[in-house]
Amino acid sequence: MNESYNSALLDTAVAELSKLPGIGHKTALRLALHLLRKDPEVAIALGSSIVEMRKGIAYCPVCHNISEGGVCSICNDNHRDHSVVCVVENVKDVITIERTHEHSGVYHVLGGLISPLEGVAPSDLEIESLVNRVKDEGVKEVILALSPTMEGDTTNFYIYRKLNGLPVEVSVLARGISIGNELEYTDELTLGRSILNRTPFAK
User: Fold this and answer.
1) CATH code of the region 8-56
2) Is 140 exposed, middle or buried (0-12, 13-18, 19+ CB in 10 A)?
3) What would the pLDDT profile of 15-49 be if each residue is shown by its tens digit?
4) 191 has pLDDT over 80
5) Closest to 80 measured CA to CA, from 103, 113, 62
6) Domain 78-200 top-level CATH class
7) How confident is the model at residue 184 (pLDDT cuts 50, 70, 90)?
8) Is residue 14 within 8 Å of 27, Cβ to Cβ?
9) Looking at residue 143, what DSSP letter applies?
10) Where are the beta strands (DSSP E) in the chain?
């Protein structure tokens, strides 16, 4: 049951802030009160930036990474190796891998992992568009850079089966990453080495 803070406006702000991941009502209240203590321009700038972000950012029609208009900057970069596609779960993983400076190819964002327990089926992910890229864009290698969890391994195997028979090499990150860890929490040095030392996918 939500608490009331003797102000309908504050109640609404706290309720909206608490919808963010990892933000409970106590933290939401602290953030709201912090904004109240600041000059109004601070809250206005924050709100405007969020509205502009939501209006201005979409998803790349090629790789499904975030984009501020049409094809994203990575897919548009002619200096990158478009024959090597790194498959990741989400946009956060693109950011994480980019920080390693070890991947010079492009990306493909699935939008999640196969998880029957959570009701996520292969058709809910951007797997068919990956297969079409391999067929139509001369992709030579697909790097499966998914978290080494049960869901990640299940998704790896499904994608491998979908690509089986196509003229493309399928590789996975070297297992320097601890089993069960999320990719975004892996340190950059370990992740970078895992990309460089990737191995062919084995069933």
Assistant:
1) 1.10.8.420
2) middle
3) 999 999 999 999 999 999 999 999 999 999 999 99
4) no
5) 103
6) alpha beta
7) low
8) no
9) E
10) 58-59, 66-67, 81-88, 105-109, 141-144, 169-172, 199-200
